[in-house]
Prior knowledge:
Helix content: 25-40%
CATH class: Mainly Alpha
CATH superfamily: Winged helix-like DNA-binding domain superfamily/Winged helix DNA-binding domain
Number of strands: 2
Largest sheet: 2 strands, antiparallel
Number of helices: 2
Amino acid sequence: xxxxxxxxxxxxxxxxxxxxxxxxxxxxxxxxxxxx
Length: 36
């Protein structure tokens, strides 16, 4: 994940939170999934 994380953050697919990393709405839309 160390290699992919900066790229996914740059694209807006991941966010850093106090609880760790979470997928963004944009990531869910890109994968064709419903955002919870």
